[in-house]
Amino acid sequence: MVRTTLVTGATGFLGRQVSQAFEWAGFQVVGTGFTRVNPPATLKLNLFNPAEISSILQEVKPNVVVHCAANRFPDKCDANPEEAKKINVEASEHLAHETSSKNVLLIYISTDYVFPGRPGEAPYEANATPEPTNLYGQTKLDGERAILQATEQTGLGVVLRVPVLYGKADDPKESAVNVLMDVVWKSQEKDSRTIMDDWAKRYPTNIEDVARVCVDTATKYLDSERHRLPKILHFSSGETYTKYQICQLFAEILGLPLDGMVADKAGNDPNASVQRPYDTHLSNQTLKDIGINVETQNFKAW
Hints:
The chain is of the alpha/beta class.
């Protein structure tokens, strides 16, 4: 019998790749979106409306929902905190109650930014104590807690934390990594002096790898005694770069100088509204323990 996957945020950067990966794995896939929809493959869904969520679940009858829809940009969260809380927390809680009541597995995509990233603490295991440094990380952590609480009795909620993502994009701005290619080109302009962070450690991870892990996780939790499996999982590449080092790599590949870019090693401005952690590397050990492949693509080769 063919299994069905419902992907929220299916028209977004990660959601598109997750949808494709489940299709390749033999699942029937239905996506949801709000501003970009294309029925019947992608249905319009207001995640703030529990009645709409219930109706979609009854119509699609999925075995698993992968919740990719989110406000995932720290600066945008800080600029509009109420909207960030609505999509990252309230909508996630509505979805979890509805999926749990209908015996549907829910995979919630979260972030490494739930951790403080203080020097010497990483890599973080899945059971490490979260302590977000900014509103984005806090809303994603609150979303995690809402999901796990709503699915506590059924065991049908799983959190998958991932770091900064890169990969095939409709627009470079969809990815905090891809967009750096545009920044490299902009630094070629006459008298350019682009300041770029060369302090915080990043672990760019390809959306194809994340999508594969979502498929493998769904299959594992649908086929196993899920109450015996962990509720929080981590997945990350092991390759380390600062944003400046990523720009250096892009410039090298493009054969461009980087004279118009200045490396900033100072770290966070204490007066900045968004404080970013230094090193939030996630340990893949929990995924390894349950037999899920944690290989990742080589960033430079991609």
